[in-house]
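Question (not urgent): is this output format expected?
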Amino acid sequence: MKKITNFKNPLLILSLCLALFVSCSDDESETLLVESERIIGTWTIKESVVLGITIPGDDSSLTFSACSTTCNGVDYEATNETSGTFTYEFKNEFKTLSIDDDDSDLGGSYTGDWSVSKFTNNSLTLSTQSILGEVSFTFTK
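Got this back:
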């Protein structure tokens, strides 16, 4: 049996070994936009949790517009195909998202203060307390 003693490219072998042991998720490697820019766009419900039960999203969404004098958005409810409007404001160093729904009969009804537990460029998780206990929504962009 022949011994391999002459490696022609030690950097290649080192790179392959490192690639096997080093990895990071998309969230870890992404450069986060500032919160006021990150929120802009359409966020589709991936899932919600009510009474401890995870419910898959139904393509309902919140669309946040850039702020001028006020911050506005549109909420779309897929089950009845209606849209409503809302105003929003971040509070408590972007740990709370306050939403004021203009018409709770159209679109979803998201009026209230929502705790922001995850907020990346492409993922947003909001939760609040209701008469049913904690309710949370995970959105993706």
